[in-house]
Amino acid sequence: DAGAEDGRPFVVLDRTLFHPQGGGQKADRGTIGGVQVVHVAHDGAGGVKHYLAGDRMATGQTAEMVVDPDWRQLNKRLHNAGHLLANLVEARFPGTRGLAGHHWPGEARVDFEGRLPKEPELVRQTLNAMLGEAISAGLPVRIIGDPLTSRAVAIGNYPPVGCGGTHPESTSELVEVQVRYVKAKGGRVRMAYHVVGEEAAT
């Protein structure tokens, strides 16, 4: 299918390599038929819309897809880092539970419910040390279930968590992750983080 929304041309393909935006993760970038893809989103009917920077394509047209590998890798790392951080927090501080993750470059954070037994800065330092150890250990990252419909991701021996995002094969690919700040208020905790090289890739 092909069309336009608010002046933006889009195509829906019979199959795609592009990961749509969702689950706290940015959409893939790249080209279709040499035309820049500016956004990718679920269409609400089981398909995926690819919004293009150039002229619309015709229904029935065949086109080559090229996904930007550096942008895909950055989003894999950011998404997986958020899952790893949640695993570590829940294991280190019983009674905490991950609520939501936002894994966009420059904005990455995870929200938790629960209370921390330490000062936020001490928690931040503790978690940064734990992140370094987990990355150095090269924990395997496994996708469990049907990768196209209902799946979960498991890091090392941590429990699987439902997730439709992209992930690396090992925590070693994260290279370095740092918690930037920890803010606690009223039984909720927000932790912001970044991955090394994030600024250069955006």
Q: How would you summarize what this structure contains?
A:
This protein has 202 residues and is an alpha+beta fold.
* Overall CATH class of the largest domain: Alpha Beta
Total number of helical segments?
Answer: 3
Query: Which percent bin holds the helix content?
Result: 10-25%
The assembly state of the depicted protein chains is single chain
Shape: elongated
Major beta sheet, strand line-up: 1-2-5-4-3-6
Weakly predicted, low-confidence segments? none
- H/E series: EEEEEEHEEHEEEEEH
Write the layout of secondary structure elements.
Elements: E1 2-5, E2 8-12, E3 30-32, E4 35-42, E5 48-52, E6 65-67, H1 69-92, E7 97-102, E8 109-113, H2 120-136, E9 141-145, E10 151-155, E11 161-162, E12 177-185, E13 188-195, H3 198-201
Antiparallel strand pairs: 1-2, 2-5, 3-4, 3-6, 4-5, 7-8, 8-13, 9-10, 10-11, 12-13
Description:
The chain is an alpha+beta fold and 202 residues long. It folds into two domains: 66 residues, Elongation Factor Tu (Ef-tu), domain 3; 131 residues, 2-Layer Sandwich (Threonyl-tRNA Synthetase, Chain A, domain 2), CATH 3.30.980. The protein contains three helices and 13 strands, in the order ββββββαββαβββββα. The strands form three sheets. A six-stranded antiparallel sheet has the order 1-2-5-4-3-6.
Keywords:
single chain, 202 residues, alpha+beta, Elongation Factor Tu (Ef-tu), domain 3, Threonyl-tRNA Synthetase, Chain A, domain 2, 2 domains, six-stranded antiparallel sheet, four-stranded antiparallel sheet, 22% helix, 34% strand
